[in-house]
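Researcher: Sequence recovery benchmark, item below. Answer with residues only.
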């Protein structure tokens, strides 16, 4: 990943990263040079609910190299879990930009 690894938050056991669109693109492009195959997901609320009930979906999301959250409900979850903590603003801004 370029510069430093992005901050990772856990939403219902799913790791998500707070990145701006520009940083996400740069991070993904940098990963294309890595010798190991990896994948990126853009989970929305149904993914989080399903991962709580389906171990296969949970593994898919937990093993993803990068999870870029999608949707307003993810913003609400982040606010509820991380309300007022450093990094929340970046996560919310990121969700609007992706």
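Model:
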């Amino acid at each position: 990943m370029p510069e430093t690894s992005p901050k990772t938050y856990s939403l219902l056991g799913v790791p998500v990263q707070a990145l701006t669109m520009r940083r996400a693109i740069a991070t993904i492009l940098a990963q294309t040079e890595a010798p190991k195959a990896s994948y990126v997901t853009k989970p929305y609320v149904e993914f989080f609910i399903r991962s709580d009930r389906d171990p296969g979906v949970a593994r898919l999301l937990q093993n993803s190299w990068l999870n870029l959250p999608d949707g307003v409900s993810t913003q609400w979850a982040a606010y509820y879990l991380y309300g007022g903590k450093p990094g929340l603003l970046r996560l919310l801004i990121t969700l609007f930009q992706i």
